[in-house]
Amino acid sequence: MKHLSLVVALLSLFVLSSCATKGQTGAVGGAAAGALIGQAIGHNTGATLIGAAVGGMLGYIVGNEMDKYDREQLNHTYERGVSNQRSSWVNPDNGNQYTVTPQPAYQNQSTHRVCRRAEIEAVIDGKPQRTYSTACRDEYGSWQLQQ
């Protein structure tokens, strides 16, 4: 019965997000994925809520504020960024500023994929934001953000 409730909740989020903006969709998707990951890891409500909050923030930043240029810069940082060295850029179209500090790559124990965690600091519309993200290589060698 729990699984049915989860499926219904996720479908509801999907339907609601179809009417939303990119940022809202990213936040909803990130929160849903974060909640699932939090529940799978912690097996309790607190872990689920923390996962939802972190996933929602990352989903909002990437979904709403990062355009193609920013995602390319972020991907470049995951690919070629020196561990523990900041990489910064300013989006020429909207003026948003990003500073990303990648950590050393590691192999995820459960998926056996190469992953990298990074701290993302952003100034969007004059408001500073900070989040952490992890990207893992997919089967084609491309970095994919994990939520």
Which keywords apply here?
disordered N terminus; single chain; alpha+beta; 48% helix; 147 residues
What does this structure look like?
By secondary structure, the protein is of the alpha+beta class. The chain folds into two domains: 63 residues; 80 residues, no CATH class. Helices cover 48% and strands 26% of the residues. Strands 1, 2, 3, 4, 5 and 6 form a six-stranded antiparallel β-sheet that branches. 28% of the residues are buried.
Classify the helix fraction into a percent range: 40-55%
Strand runs, count: 6
Alpha carbon gap, first and last residue:
25 Å
Strand content: 25-35%
Low-confidence stretches: 1-29
Tell me the count of domains: 2
Question: Which SSEs are present, and which pair or pack?
Answer:
Blueprint lengths: L1 H16 L4 H21 L2 H21 L2 H13 L6 E4 L6 E6 L3 E2 L6 E11 L2 E11 L5 E4 L1
Write a compact overview of the structure shown:
Helix content is 48%, strand content 26%. It has 147 residues and is an alpha+beta fold. Helix 1 (2-17) runs antiparallel to helix 2 (22-42) and helix 2 (22-42) runs antiparallel to helix 3 (45-65).
